[in-house]
Amino acid sequence: MTKTRIDARFAALKAEGRAAFVPYVMAGDPDAATALAILKGLPQAGADLIEVGFPFSDPMAEGPPIQRAAQRALAKGMTLTGTLDLIRSFRADDQTTPVILMGYMNPLVTWGFEAFARDAAAAGVDGVIVVDCPPEEADPLADALEANGLALIFLTTPTTDGKRLPTVIRRASGFVYYVSVAGVTGVKEADAAAVAPNVERIRKAAGLPVAVGFGIKTPERASAIAQVADAVVVGSALVDEVAEAVDLNEDVTRRVLSKVDSLAKAVRFARRGLTAV
Amino acid sequence: MDAPARPNDYTAYPDDKGRFGDYGGQYVPETLMPLVHDLDAAYAAAKADPAFQAELAGYLTHYVGRPSPLYFAARLTEHFGGAKIYLKREELNHTGSHKINNCMGQILLAMRMGKTRIIAETGAGQHGVATATVCARFGLPCIVYMGAVDVERQKPNVFRMNLLGAEVRPVTSGSATLKDAMNEALRDWVTNVHDTYYLIGTAAGMHPYPEMVRDFQAVIGRETREQILEVEGRLPDAVVACVGGGSNAIGIFHPFLNDEGVKLIGVEAAGEGMDTERHAAAINGGRPGVLHGNMTYLLQDREGQITEAHSISAGLDYPGIGPEHSWLHDVGRATYLTATDAESLDAFMLLSKLEGILPAIESAHALARVGDVARDVGKDGIVVLNLSGRGDKDVGTVAAHLGRQI
Ligand SMILES: Cc1ncc(COP(=O)(O)O)c(C=O)c1O
Questions:
Q1: Is some CB atom of chain A closer than 8 A to the CB atom of B63?
Q2: Which of B68, B15, B63, B1 is nearest to B207 (CA)?
Q3: What's the CA gap between A220 and A241, in Å, rounded?
Q4: Three-state secondary structure call for residue B290
Q5: What is the ipTM of this complex?
Q6: What is the pTM of this model?
Q7: Which residues 158-197 in chain A show a CB within 8 A of chain B?
């Protein structure tokens, strides 16, 4: 098989000796056109990979920021179909930045795993994270994604002990996501010292890069995590920028991309002892 | 589509993956997986432990007030002119509904597991009250998540929970009803995994809850079976129950599952009518999907977004249904009918006037269909209706619909 975009990107970053910066944006937030403008601006602003949330009415592992983002997107009529349309448009200009979809099981069940995997691959998606699909329930979805060259990215958490880890990474591909806090997105703060040994043990067990997310909001925290992880994911802090820009009637795209720029720089220079400018 | 094969023994489910046929499972975030596995193991051990069962039985007798009577409703029977109608009087339990059966079982399990903080979701407030009650009895802190809309329409129960020492947290996200309360309880659980026990109020959610809640509610069906054999010398022709998440229904159905001669009839809430979008009938108006940890029938749109349920009854106002019901429907062992808000209000009035019993508006949905069932079964037949709760909590709702001030 040809090298996937995800593998290629992590290999290149490894050669550079730095962690990836991975922004999470919600498809259709605050509306489809603005979300596309944000998406298109992300690589230039420093995104190494991109996570695109597809909205779900009942996001049970999400804190208030991403819950509200999903509600804004749904109110504007965003769907999984619309999410794939966005990614197709993004791919027209960018063939190298990996795009990972993140969301919940039911829209995928509705679509049908086979058809979804085919359509997502055709749209230019590289991997999928399904928050409420633990490894025990993953086989049918994993089979469909694998057959279409897409990665199924699994979440590991502080409650995933050594006994359970092999189950979780059994079908992992692309990278493994480490949820740095026991909790919902965007509430508690991640602690780099506590994260480091977990990243190490997961990386060793899975033989895959480890991305850390949930609870990283500031460039300082992003920089600290970038010293120990292969990728740093920031979501809630970015969707909060969308909300604030909307509230203040500011240019949403500019505001989000400028936040991405500061976080990306923090990650980029983290291991060189340089501070972000 | 062909109906899936009927099993030889219905009571052998769920299987070891927590499945009833295609339904059920454990679709939860990774943070919770070790906990649900722990819970599964702890419940299996408790289920097999005679000391646990004896302790539970003791509380059910002396605290809850079991067994509940099986009462022959002579005037209701006469009114419909069909089969004899018996009422299983779950509304006479302590706290006024079947919900306490499950709460008592789960609180004993939580303590056995060393958990020190209890969370729950509630719709009508009946499960919240029952949870607050057992928490007060055993001295555990209790937080109840309740949709802001439900807080408004079930004020007396909110106050009851407060009197019992529970904290009620109104949930404003989504549609601000039961499903959102459940989302919020799950978020709390994900955040407080080390000390918190999530006491789910219905036979839904991720395995092992559908099995565990069913087992704790099956005391209803076991007693009914014994009682009807004693008074009538035979099994009933039909058993009728309302279905929200499905716990009172599966509780009374389960001990009859292998008696194919006993018709099992669940009644879903049709809200303003099945020809409108405003109902809460997951089986009659939905299709299978994944929500709150299990694969089951759900109200949803074309793209798999969960749609809001609508019912006059807060306890039935849920877009899903327990997975065992989805399976019983598919294999054809149980039948799921519907009753509208208006029909249920009429049934509420009817039982109040004919038998001197104010039914919960949830239970009134079952009552709204029991006449049809009784006439169907015919004069020589026997029908048992699970009167899952009492209607005191609903007098405000009923008054409002009658245009009366109280
Ligand atoms: C009296 C009563 N009956 C029925 C229900 C519906 O729940 P279930 O379907 O789990 O029995 C409720 C829920 O609050 C209730 O209070």
A1: no
A2: B15
A3: 17
A4: strand
A5: 0.94
A6: 0.96
A7: 158-161, 164, 168, 179, 182-184, 187-188
